[in-house]
Every structure is written in structure tokens, then in C-alpha cells.
Fold this protein.
Amino acid sequence: MSDIVVAFEEYLSVIKALNAATVSSYIQDITQLELTIAPKKLTDTTTDDVLKFLATFQNKRTLNRKLSSINTFFKFCHEHKFSHNSVSIPSAKVPKNLPKYLSSEEIQKALLFIDRTTLFGLRDYALILFLYASGCRISEALNVQRGDISGEWLKIRFAKGEKERIVPLAAVAIRAIEDYLAHLDFSSSYIWLNYRGEKLSRISAFKIIKKYLGISPHVLRHSFASALIIGGADLRVVQELLGHSSLVTTQIYTHIQKQNLSQTLNDYHPIRSFV
């Protein structure tokens, strides 16, 4: 990895305070570009070089991710006088599909099949309720410690971008967590543990959610946001609860909002009875 890529990695980690996974993704993309244009240096890269590199990717989402990394990198180079080349390419348009989500009825039905006479049945039940009640990313949820829940409030300390946020937690989720912890013999500051008393892994959490709901943990996050939007919550409130840094990210849920408004109109407007 060249010195400039190392400097870029430090910039992303320290100055931008991005999480390790995001930084790794950026560096992987830039390293891939660097290998493609070799022996030419990254600082000598032209727009034409970037376009040829991007032409090898067909999937628009993958292309846009690579492009975001590249534009961020060259903006960094320009601001720090590493390069005078101006490389900035607009993203490809990707259709905004309605995010997959489950209704509250579907989630409640699935919860009935969890055997809460066992410790890990109690854990699985509490974990699903916790994710649906908080809208946490699974990485955030698995890092929650006992002291992070105070009364009806949850402090999310390991959020994306190293930002903290505090969200209210429904009483039913708190009761489920307390019931689970009351039966837990392991001594750990973390809440979600495996059979060895160690912090639950992302893979294990994925398997738990998949087992009962047939979805990924991230779909539960979508379900949380969708339930709020359908219930009439303000988009900015949902943005705050999800921990989105930009309202643009949250706006994907406006499709649900419009769909709900349309259904409400069809169900209740008197014009539906006109001939």
C-alpha cells in the first residue's frame, strides 16, 4: 500500500472518524484502482483512468460504492495538495426500491414460537424485541452493555461513525431483557452472550433472527423505521432514532409514507363510494 493510501486511511479513521469496516472498504477500493492503473501513480490518475476502471463493474450499487471511495480520495488529495488533478464523477442512478420489512403482526406471530422456558429462548425473544424496539444496527446492539440501559432509555455508544445517541426503549423490550438477565449465570458487562458466556457474534445473531423471522437483522431495523412512518412519525424524528447523519438516507422511507397515505385515502375518503 503506497504512502498516500496510508495517509488517506489515517484521514478516514482519525479525522472523519469512520468505523473500521467503512475505512477498510474505502481502502480496498482505492487499492484496487491503484493496481489497475499501475505503474502510473494514484496522484497522476485522470478522469479517463477512473472511467475505464469503473467500466469493469456492471452492478450500479457496486459501481457507486467504488465511485464514492474514489471521489472521496481525490477530494482528500486536492485539499491536502497531494494532487492537482480534479477527478469528480457523478454517481449512476440506482432505483430506490422499497426496503423489505415485516409488519408488527408478523413479528408478534413469530415471537409466539420461541420457547421461553430455556435461557437462550429468553435471550432470542429479548433480542428480537430489542432490535424491533430500538432500530439498532446489529453491530450496535451486540456492543450494548448493561449500564447502557437506564430506565426507559438506551445509550448507543458504538454507533456508526463513532457517534453516540440515546433512544427510548419500549417497556415490553425492557421486561424481556430483565427476564433474560435474571436467568443468566454468566458474569459479563455485555447483554447478548453465547453459550460460553462470550459476547454474541454477528453470525450467531444473524442465525437467530433468520431462524424465527426468516430475515436478516437489518430488515428488523427497516421494520422499526417503517412502523414509525406508517404510524405517522416525522421523518426527522426517524432520522434521529436511526442515527442517520443525513436526512437523505432516511428519505427511502418516504415511499412507505406515500403508500400509507394512498391507502388511507382509499379507505376513508367518501369519494370511494361515488359512482
